[in-house]
Write a structure and sequence with these properties.
The complex is a heterodimer of chains A (384) and B (515). Chain A is 42% helix and 8% strand. With 384 residues, chain A is of the alpha/beta class. Chain A has 2 domains: 328 residues, Thiamin diphosphate (ThDP)-binding fold, Pyr/PP domains (Rossmann fold); 28 residues. In chain A, the strands form 2 sheets. Chain A has a 5-stranded parallel β-sheet with strand order 1-2-3-7-6, with helices on both faces. A two-stranded antiparallel ribbon of chain A has the order 4-5. In chain A, strand 6, helix 9 and strand 7 form a beta-alpha-beta unit. The radius of gyration of chain A is 23 Å and the shape is globular. Chain B is built from 14 helices and 21 strands. In chain B, the strands form 6 sheets. In chain B, strands 11, 14, 17, 18, 19, 20 and 21 form a 7-stranded mixed β-sheet that branches. A 4-stranded antiparallel β-sheet of chain B has the order 1-8-6-3, with no helix packed on it. A 4-stranded antiparallel β-sheet of chain B has the order 5-4-2-7, with no helix packed on it. About 22% of the residues of chain B have low confidence. The chains are: A alpha/beta (384), B alpha+beta (515). Chains A and B meet through helix 2 and helix 12 of A and strand 5 and helix 1 of B. Chain B: Belongs to the 2-oxoacid dehydrogenase family.
């Protein structure tokens, strides 16, 4: 029986939780996932460790920058680094990723520098990386909307003949990311419908961080989220989202299947949002610190470090160096933010449509003339 | 050398405007690093710790636990270069290097600004021959008088009457020539046709500069951005008071709140003096030093009450038609986002009445032995704020529509209550309205704002029996009280002004006829 299940157990509690590294760092064997991660070397795992440390440092710095008035808002991914770094690295370069606004680890794994994320939160850009070049969609702000869009992209891949040809370099899949809250949105159900009907190469990946702002997952669903897609005939699995290795393995298996033309998959990764929903939120109003302490003990970074130490793959010097690099990254962002220039307002007329549009052109012209009023006429006045 | 940087209250949520100080995590002398939490605040949304954006040593803590502060308010001052820029930092090598660089940079800036002070810009440097303003209290009126005598031709140009007396330079010569020729149309624009582009008007409004006070140098007699800035520069130059920010210190002018408790027993404990420095208290009395707004209010009241002989005239007015107008406007779509109050209509009625009696809009200049008639109305609105009485004024109120006036009053009140009234907003008032009706009382005898000649007080609007065409009806009635400076306004003129105001309020359509 595949790790991706199609049947729902009689009793919801019988839904397995798949993991390779336990919170105490011990390694559990798992035939199918072990095969999917067998090629990863100690070097790879050290890199994932460093990635998680770096993105956490950037994340904490961004929260500070918001408090210092440099960002309008920030959605922290604190605690979800394992799920994001694992999933981000499991994708192939040609795969297309559709993230939410909390996917800083995904962005990092796709090679997007953190400062490119900050300008959106600073309110000076709609997005500043090339989604085509990096094969990563701009952060989705309207949650749930990305599911049908990702499926649409996947169906386009089918029509372009980029699925199931057997060519590892060209066969492509889509990884649609959303949280437990979004999974209750109608659009995710619509996405499931189309993906299943057309057997689109789309992997749906939910980081269940336990809280949809202030609504706990238990209020949203009577069964584990992983079981929801099975009603559509989409095979799914529930994994430990704070186990970077299990995430990597499960996402890799799912994307491989999708690329081969075997249709969609759904993964629920259990993790925890250690910080507030956004900087405008105060989680102490709706959850207990005991719950946060409980999840702190399952931290993805500590877990991988314990495992790698037991394997003699990392030492104190490496850990210290990662921490220092994280600090340097944070300080670099701290100083970089002040150098971010406000955009020329005329930029807002760019990229509205792919082709020139007469109405946008007219509005642009009107704006140019309006703005000309604000220019200081004395610099050009005839008296000077 | 030290480099002082202020940590201010940022908007910790989305669009929040104020926060309460919950905890202060550092004290004077403490060393902070970048991102160290320094203060905890609670907003409408959440309690959050604010991290420092700089490294250094705390030199001042400007708030106390429990304070309500507005976004942008200074919280903590940090010296980012406490050790004299020798780069002695140990654990923050990078930060220390940066501080050292910053220190050098600031040194350069200091010397630059010193040079600037030593050699003022050419514009102001040329002013020295004109009016060295011997007495700082002789402000606009004196300057204005001097200017008026300097060139008789200029008296016909109300637009330039105030505030440019010390101005010199090319454009001024040009204007003089023009005045003698009597041909230069662009300098002859009447007061309500000042030419300025919307962004320039906004700049003037933001800076609290009346466009009429600005000397226009732009093409076609338009006011330019630089003109407004130059006018502001002159206003600052005249200013003997401390910087804007210190003028309305954030402290109550009244006795401590705990005073109420003290009256309830024969003997009481000495009071909590934490938030009220200088207060002394024994079991029978509490002594509060006279200072800040209380002190200035007292000085203004004394100088006004004992130099200008006050006369107050009263009139009871049927406000029903005015209140109907207020209700109509409130219900209309055009006024959906502007709160209209009877005060706005009263202010408008006053402006209309001033137009019929322009002699009241004047001031007595004892030093120059002159009466100065103003061609503009800067309408003061008395505001009771937590910091005491503040009278900011609406510049060039005579040019405003009713809606603009209502917006201006709302803005003024809001700014005053938040404690962010700039000093410039309280200068150069010509006539003031005070609304003691908000306290639910009928009338009073208002005291003139110093330098002004008229103040209109408005009582509460109450339903009362009223004789209408020989029968008693229930009408909405208020009492107006108008105080004026009897040195330059006779009883007849003052009464006429109040009668005209009353007439407009009883029949708002008169505003169409007279306005």
């Amino acid at each position: 029986m595949s790790v991706f299940r199609t049947t729902i157990p009689q009793n919801a509690e019988d839904e397995p939780l798949v993991r390779l590294i336990a919170p105490d760092g011990t390694r559990t064997p798992h035939e199918e996932l072990d095969a999917a991660v067998a090629h990863l070397t100690g070097e790879d795992l050290r890199r994932y460790y460093r990635d998680m440390v770096m993105i956490r440092a950037a994340d904490l710095e961004a929260t500070s920058l918001q408090r210092q008035g440099q960002l309008g808002l920030w959605a922290s991914a604190l605690g979800q680094e394992g799920a994001q770094i694992g999933a981000g690295h499991a994708a192939r370069t040609q795969d297309y990723l559709v993230p939410t606004y909390r996917e800083h680890g995904i962005a990092w794994a796709r090679g997007i520098e953190p400062w490119r994320l900050l300008d959106v939160w600073r309110g000076i850009a709609h997005g500043s990386y090339d989604p085509y070049e990096l094969r990563t969609h701009p952060y989705m702000l309207v949650l749930g909307a990305q599911a049908p869009q990702a499926v649409g992209y996947a169906m386009g891949l089918q029509r372009d003949g980029l699925v199931g040809t057997g060519d590892d370099e060209s066969d492509t899949a889509v990884l649609a990311l959303f949280g437990d809250g979004s999974s209750s949105e109608g659009e995710v159900s619509e996405g499931f419908t189309f993906a299943a009907s057309f057997q689109a190469p789309c992997v749906f990946f939910t980081q269940n961080n336990q809280w949809a702002i202030s609504v706990p997952t238990s209020v949203q669903s009577r069964v584990p989220l992983a079981q929801r897609s099975r009603g559509w005939g989409i095979p799914s699995v529930r994994i430990d989202g704070n186990d970077v290795l299990a995430v990597y393995g499960a996402v890799r298996l799912a994307l491989d299947a999708a690329r081969r033309g075997e249709g969609p998959r759904y993964i629920e990764a259990l993790t925890y949002r250690m910080a507030a929903h956004t900087t405008s939120d105060d989680p102490t109003r709706y959850r207990h610190s005991t719950e946060e302490e409980e999840w702190a003990a399952k931290d993805p970074i500590d877990r991988l470090r314990t495992y790698l130490e037991a394997q003699d793959e990392i030492d104190e010097a490496f850990v210290t160096r990662c921490d220092e690099e994280g600090h340097d990254l944070a300080m670099a962002l701290h100083h970089q933010i002040h150098a971010m220039a406000d955009p020329d307002p005329i930029e807002m007329f760019r990229n509205v449509y792919a082709d020139p549009h007469p109405l946008v052109e007219a509005e642009r012209e009107e704006f140019v003339q309006f703005r000309a009023q604000f220019e200081d006429e004395t610099t050009t006045g005839e008296e000077r | 050398m030290s480099t002082l940087v202020m940590i201010t209250l940022t908007d910790p949520g989305e669009g929040l405007t104020e926060a309460e100080i919950l905890d202060i995590k550092v004290g004077v002398g403490d060393t902070v690093a970048i991102n160290d939490p320094v203060i905890e605040v609670e907003t409408a949304k959440s309690a959050v710790e604010l991290p420092s954006h700089i490294a250094g040593r705390v030199t001042r803590v400007l708030v106390s636990v429990g304070d309500e502060v507005v976004v942008g308010a200074p919280l903590i001052e940090v010296d980012t270069d406490p050790d004299g820029g020798d780069g002695a930092g140990s654990d923050q090598a990078a930060a220390a290097r940066q501080q050292a660089t910053a220190g050098e940079g600031t040194g350069a800036q200091d010397s630059t600004s010193a040079q600037e002070q030593a050699a003022p810009p050419a514009d102001s440097g040329a002013e020295e021959d004109a009016a060295p303003a011997a007495d700082p209290s002789a402000e606009e009126p004196g300057t204005q008088a001097q200017e008026a005598t300097e060139s008789a031709a200029e008296e016909e140009q109300p637009k330039n009457l105030v505030g440019y007396g010390t101005r010199s330079g090319a454009s001024r010569r040009r204007r003089r020539v023009a005045a003698q020729d009597g041909e230069d149309q662009d300098q002859q624009v009447p007061i309500d046709r000042i030419l300025a582009k919307p962004p320039v008007r906004k700049l003037a409004r933001d800076l609290g500069i009346a466009l009429a006070d600005v000397f226009a140098t732009g093409p076609g007699g338009t006011v330019t951005r630089e003109d407004v800035l130059a006018a502001q520069q002159r206003a600052i130059g005249d200013e003997p008071a401390p910087a804007d920010g210190d003028y309305f210190p954030d402290e109550s002018p009244q006795a401590p709140a705990s005073l109420h408790g003290a009256m309830k027993s024969a003997t009481s404990q000495p009071m909590d003096q934490q938030s009220f420095s200088g207060v002394t208290s024994d079991d029978r009395t509490t002594r509060v030093p006279i200072r800040s707004v209380r002190k200035r209010t007292a000085e203004a009241m004394v100088s006004s009450a004992f130099t200008a002989p006050h006369v107050t005239v009263f009139n009871e007015v049927d406000m029903t038609a005015t209140m109907d107008l207020v209700r109509t406007l409130r219900a209309s779509r055009e006024w959906a986002d502007v709160r209209i109050s009877p005060l706005a209509i009263v202010a408008k009625a006053l402006l209309v009445a001033i137009r019929r009696n322009p002699e009241v809009n004047a001031s007595w200049n004892e030093d120059a032995q002159e009466i100065v008639y103003k061609h503009f109305v800067n309408l003061g609105i008395a505001a009771a704020t937590p910091r005491g009485l503040i009278v900011p004024n609406i510049k060039d109120a005579h040019l405003l529509t009713l809606k603009e006036l209502a917006e201006g009053i709302n803005d003024l009140a809001k700014t005053a209550r938040s404690g962010s009234t700039p000093l410039s907003a309280t200068r150069n008032g010509t006539i003031t309205v005070t609304n003691f009706g908000v306290f639910g009382i009928d009338s009073g005898t208002p005291i003139l704002n110093p330098g002004e000649s008229v103040i209109l007080g408005m009582g509460a609007v109450k339903q009362k029996p009223w004789a209408v065409d020989g029968s008693i009806e229930v009408r909405e009635v208020t009492q107006l009280a108008l105080s004026f400076d009897h040195r330059l306004i006779d009883g007849a003129l003052g009464s006429e002004l109040l009668r005209d105001i009353s007439a407009v309020l009883e029949q708002p359509q008169l505003g169409l006829v007279w306005g």
